[in-house]
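Anyone opening a protein record will find just a pair of labelled lines. With that in mind, the following record should read easily:
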Amino acid sequence: MNFKSNGAGSKLIVEQRKLNRLNDLFEKAVADKANLIERRELKVLYQEYIDDGREITLPIQNVIYPQHATAS
C-alpha cells in the first residue's frame, strides 16, 4: 500500500473512502438492512457530503421589500 503523509493525495484517499462508505450505507438503508448505528453514520456522512464546499460563513442579509402604494 502507498500511504502519503500530507497533501491532497491523502485527503483524496480519505474522501474516496468516505464516499464509498456513504454509498455502501445508502444501499444498505434502501434495502432496509442498516442497523441504527449504520443509519446514524449514514446521516453524518451524508450531511458532511452536502456541506462539503459550501460557504457557511456568509453573513445573512436582510431583504427589504418595497411598499406598494395604496389608493385612498
In short: The helical segments are 8-30, 36-51. Residues 1-5 have pLDDT under 50 and may be disordered. The CA atoms of residues 34 and 40 lie 10 Å apart.
